[in-house]
Amino acid sequence: MSYVVVGAGIVGLSVARALLLSRPGSAVTVLDKEPTVAAHQTGHNSGVVHAGLYYPPGSLKAVLCRRGVGLLEEYTADKGIPYQKLGKLLVALDRDEESRLLGIRERALANGVPDIRMLGPDGLRAIEPHATGRAALHSPHTAVVDFPRVARSLAEDITALGGQVLLGRTVRAINQSAGAVRVSTGAEHVVADQAVLCGGLHADRLARLAGGAPGPRIVPFRGEYYRLTPQRASLVRGLIYPVPDPRYPFLGVHLTRRHDGSVDVGPNALLALAREGYRHRDVDLRDLRESLAWPGLWQLGRRHWRTGARELAGSVVKRRFVAAARAYVPELDPADLRRAPAGVRAQALDRDGALVDDFRIETVDRVVAVRNAPSPAATSALAIAEHVVGRMLTGRI
Ligand SMILES: Cc1cc2nc3c(=O)[nH]c(=O)nc-3n(C[C@H](O)[C@H](O)[C@H](O)COP(=O)(O)OP(=O)(O)OC[C@H]3O[C@@H](n4cnc5c(N)ncnc54)[C@H](O)[C@@H]3O)c2cc1C
Fold it and tell me: What whole-number distance in Å separates Cα of residue 342 and Cα of residue 360?
């Protein structure tokens, strides 16, 4: 059998490796338009191995996150990649957040997250001496990892197993005939029995090239970060998160100690004017035109314009961004923070303006398209691969 996988982010690489492990001897080619693996979301995220606290029980996110954590811990141990269980505190600031936190605790228990416990202000400070809050949920097994390093390791596995990772190849056409799928990058073509599309910020375009449904569309949200100066990094030992707003798919500005010991504050969530718009000034007219032509974006704007305006203000005025973090670590001062590289999230949006919450996978004949793989997809990647490949090999997709 032969397979082509589009996208050398952590999801595509995990799928390619799983295909080679499940069907030894098959021909597997990974194509990516960038000169390196992990060039987009996989290389621009918070680096958190989520434990599975928030997701609706039974959803793909809940199931594949829990499974993914186990697989990732095993994989990193096997490859000698550091996997640091720094632990996470989900901090409630008022009574309303505390009652939402109790709801999250129920979900976490239903999802099988181990060893979580509720803490009061003293318990919270025993874990994070500089943090404050009314109550907290502690998840001691939440970890941090270097996802780009994991991705590079997966690419090495693919080559060692006889597959190939071809970089600098932009996929421009996907044609299906009776017996095969032909993926073209211009002059070059790869013909295979099946294709799997893991295009992240371009997931919808790739799916449409293969004849997939017009929606959902990807809407890019830029997440900006600040980094604590090395002298102030000791203010945060592990991961400090707000209680998420259930109306919104993002987790809110959090404080994260990274795999290299630096501490990031962020990200916020701003509609980006380009799918790979890492800077304010990045504008891509095609991306912008497509976003504005999608009715779902206008619906979303009508519902969430207040949050959008708040995020924009936080982006432009550092003091407002810092204020969000100071609610949890009051000693923070704007002078303690420097700008850090931003990331752009691929968030699928349905025609009616609903943000697609769960992972979404679509099949068009011989092509499997991963259409929505937002956070915690880096955590879940090995399990997403197991799910997709398992279903492909049993003819269910
Ligand atoms: C700011 C931010 C913070 C996050 N924090 C976390 C976290 O802490 N924990 C967590 O688990 N998840 C986190 N996530 C989510 C996580 O990073 C993503 O869910 C995950 O990386 C998705 O992987 P992917 O392989 O699907 O996408 P990507 O890594 O984006 O890879 C897609 C690849 O497809 C390629 N591609 C696209 N179109 C084409 C084409 N036409 N031809 C060839 N190649 C193409 C791109 O070049 C890219 O390399 C975060 C994301 C962001 C942006």
Answer: 25
Is the pLDDT at 314 greater than 90? The verdict is no
Question: Which tokens belong to 334?
Answer: 């704007």
Sheet holding 367-372, edge to edge: 164-166, 27-31, 2-6, 194-197, 367-372, 360-364
Helix H or strand E segment including 228:
strand 217-228
Location of structure tokens 């095969």: 180
Within 13 Å, how many C-alpha atoms sit on residue 380's CB side?
A: 22
pLDDT band at 248 (very low <50, low <70, confident <90, very high): confident
Cβ within 8 Å of residue 70, ≥6 positions away = none
Whole-number pLDDT of residue 84? 98
**Cβ of 170 below 6 Å from ligand 1:** yes
Pocket test for ligand 1, best of 45, 73, 208, 361 (most atoms within 8 A of CB): 45
- For ligand 1, say whether the CB of 266 is within 6 Å of any of its atoms: no
Q: Is 79 exposed, middle or buried (0-12, 13-18, 19+ CB in 10 A)?
A: middle
Q: Name the pTM for this structure.
A: 0.96
Assess whether the C-beta atom of 40 lies below 6 angstroms from ligand 1: yes
* Per-residue DSSP letter, 143: E
State pLDDT tens for residues 126-142: 999 999 999 999 999 99
